[in-house]
Design a protein that fits this description.
outer membrane lipoprotein receptor (LolB), chain A; alpha+beta; two-stranded antiparallel sheet; 7 helices
Length: about 450
């Protein structure tokens, strides 16, 4: 894969001081040479990646009837080409090892590639916060927390792999949202039973009354999840107060099980603890592609690459589709997928010698425009490629928010996979902007969610 060599040189120089803020002169590139989020504004030399011109946003795109399922602005487009096992050699330089392994594991696997659209946009009100973070936010001494940070994207001009990962962890997800979706473990033969989930997520800045310096100290966001089907899992609920510095203060997590009828602390809801309702396919930190404290890994920034990643995945929102039309043996039905060529940051994570994790190594490919991880390759403790995850993102242009409509995690050994986020058979998907209070994220609220 082609690296951006000049970028690598500057990164090598800047990595000498991994916690440094950028200078005002460097920050002045944001909004000029760089997008408001810090991506390269210009397209690539070949023209296959266009310049960013503002993305799809609430000011330039017709409003949808349902902001949780926006209309597909690219519905009339056809694939430019389709990658198959037969022509794979022509495109291998723009695919990750995990993506390449899918073609080996599944001979029928294909990847439809469409015209690239740089659709990402955040609310205009957020852009000044990001530029301000560039000259103020630093990593704390351990590297596993942030100082002088405001809301989202602490390092729009990153100096290290850890800073890129922090951008993924803190990226904007609408401020306040409720999601009604599924987690679907798929067996090697294609059999599945959907697990139905309701999530609620809010940043302290979006609570009624806003962030409170004392009550929300060290809190990045509040999260409440409840499982509503199948019957054997109904009544399971999870509450998280996600901390900004998890080295100083671990994530605060509680679970409620209707069978036991009690709330208990859940310190195992972290790292490689098992994810509920996923049939053992997902670790806790696989959720949202990667989440939680980064303290068990050494992070190395490799540079930028151009790869084919899921993007503008509006077909996966189609309410006329049923799950068995999307889900197949080994992988999702490519007829409903969309890949585009985009620039990504490549970050390699190797587990520390004094730590443990079932993934000894992860390679993250993080979209430069949104800071969301688009593809992650996972390696086992023998150093062998084991799993590959992909984020199928869209731009929710009515609310200026890029986020996933599906997330897949493939076990390349067993042929099983997990798809999280599909909502086609649900009456609704996303609800944005609802006002929440801290009382909505207490043990009492957790108990109510589990009933």
């Amino acid at each position: 894969m082609k690296y951006h060599n000049l970028m690598l040189v500057s990164l090598a120089i800047m990595s000498l001081n991994a916690t440094a803020k950028v200078s005002p002169e460097e920050a002045s590139k944001i909004g000029d040479q760089l997008t408001p989020l810090g991506a390269e504004k210009a397209g690539n030399e070949s023209g296959t990646i266009p310049a960013w011109t503002g993305g799809l946003n609430s000011n330039n795109t017709a409003k949808s009837g349902d902001t949780g399922r926006p209309n597909n602005p690219f519905a009339d487009e056809k694939p430019l080409f389709t990658i198959t096992a037969k022509n794979l050699a022509d495109y291998k330089d723009n695919l990750t090892p995990g993506q390449l392994a899918m073609f080996t594991k599944f001979p029928d696997y294909t990847m439809p590639v469409y015209k690239t659209h740089r659709s990402v946009a955040y609310p205009e009100s957020v852009y000044p916060l990001i530029k301000n973070n560039a000259v103020n936010t630093t990593l704390v001494e351990s590297g596993y927390g942030l100082s002088d940070f405001d809301t989202t994207i602490p390092f729009p001009i990153p100096n290290s792999g850890l800073e890129v990962v922090w951008n993924h962890i803190t990226r904007f997800r609408g401020g306040s949202a409720v999601r009604v979706a599924t987690a679907i473990p798929v067996q090697a033969g294609g059999a599945f039973v959907p697990v139905k989930i309701t999530d609620r997520l809010v940043w302290p800045e979006y609570l009624e009354g806003g962030r409170d310096a004392d009550k929300d100290d060290n809190v990045l966001f509040y999260y409440l999840q409840s499982i509503t089907a199948p019957a054997r899992l109904t009544g399971t609920a999870l509450l998280i107060h996600e901390t900004i510095d998890q080295y100083k203060e671990a994530r605060r997590a509680w679970v409620y099980n209707s069978g036991q009828r009690r709330v208990r602390r859940a310190p195992n809801v972290a790292y490689d603890g098992p994810g509920a309702g996923t049939d053992g396919l997902r670790t806790t930190d696989n959720y949202d592609m990667y989440n939680g404290s980064p303290d068990r890994y050494e992070w190395t920034l490799k540079g930028k690459k151009e790869i084919y990643i899921p993007y503008n995945a509006y077909p996966l929102l189609n309410p006329d589709l049923e799950y068995d039309e999307i889900i197949g043996a080994g992988h999702l039905n490519p007829e409903h997928l969309r890949y585009e060529l985009h620039r990504v940051w490549e970050v390699e994570a190797n587990v520390k010698s004094d730590s443990r994790h079932i993934y000894s190594k992860r390679t993250l490919f993080i979209d430069e425009d949104s800071w969301g991880a688009s593809v992650i390759d996972h390696y086992d403790n023998r150093g062998q490629l084991w799993k590959m995850s992909e984020a199928h993102n869209i731009q929710f242009y009515d609310v200026d928010t890029p986020w996933m409509v599906a997330e897949t995690l493939h076990d390349l050994d067993s042929g099983r996979y997990l798809v999280t986020g599909l909502s086609n058979e649900e009456p609704k998907f996303m609800e944005w902007g609802g006002k929440a209070t801290r009382q909505d994220f207490t043990s009492a609220a957790l108990r109510r969610a589990g009933r």
